[in-house]
Design brief:
Layout lengths: L4 H9 L9 E3 L10 H4 L1 H11 L4 E5 L8 H8 L4 E6 L5 H7 L6 H13 L3 E9 L7 H14 L4 E5 L6 H9 L1
Parallel strand pairs: 1-2, 2-3, 3-4, 4-5
Length: 175
Amino acid sequence: VKVNIAHVLALELSRPSWAREEVVIGAATDPYQPAEGRYRLTRACIRLLAAHGTPFGIITRGPLIVRDLDVLQEAARRVQVSVNISIPSLDERVWRTTEPGTASPRQRLRALTLLRDGGIRVGVALAPILPGISDSPDSMAAVVRAAREAGATFLWSELLHLRPGTREHFLAQLA
């Protein structure tokens, strides 16, 4: 038996004690990393959550989520679905320095528009806000304006929180 996250999720969702509380995918790590293009585990999890009547939200930086528009639409007919596209800054230098290897903020905004046009409830996570780097009123206002123009229906924000281990790696990357 091949065991992966979708297999484990199916077992958990089948438990009689499962109360169908909202599940958030991507709070700890992005579910649309490059490997998702091959393995389609997030796609499988979306289908399982909908089949088990479980509302869910997704937080991602990855425009690959647009590939799953069909299963998101199918799920949204059964349960509450929301997608949160993380856009902490529109500044190209800040993006390249703090989020190397990720899709550009403009690509993320295009994905947001495609999802919205597909009928998905989608918003922007202005997160993480980086003190001294992306926390100026002008920088944050630019993200809010771009989110509104792209069709976001909600927005939330969060300050950067670095735990030991992550802090050292992040600060070394910035240096």
